Amino acid sequence: MRALWAGQLPLGEAFWKIALLYGTLASLLATGSALALLAAGMPVGIALMVHLLALPYLLAAVVGVYRSAARYAGPPPWARLAEVTVLIWAMFMAVL
After folding, report:
1. Which one of 1, 17, 71, 90 has the largest count of C-beta atoms within 10 Å of its C-beta?
2. What's CA 40's distance to the chain center, in Å?
3. 90 exposure class (CB count in 10 Å sphere: 0-12, 13-18, 19+)
4. For position 93, what pLDDT does the model report?
């Protein structure tokens, strides 16, 4: 996580593995757990808190991708595309 936050991971790893793969799994797990809590009759506030547990990871993933993109030595359009895509992805995952 320190290497991700500092932007020390390769852009491809930060984007595909850390953000899209692990971030999507974290969001789906949080959402599924929140729905299970609601189905079990738990208060909405508790389910909402569980649903929001993935947000710190999503924030770290976005920051990590942006910082890795700033260090990317390849063609600049790929870095910009990764930045825009991870931001849109994170907003979608936050409400999923």
Report:
1. 90
2. 27
3. buried
4. 94
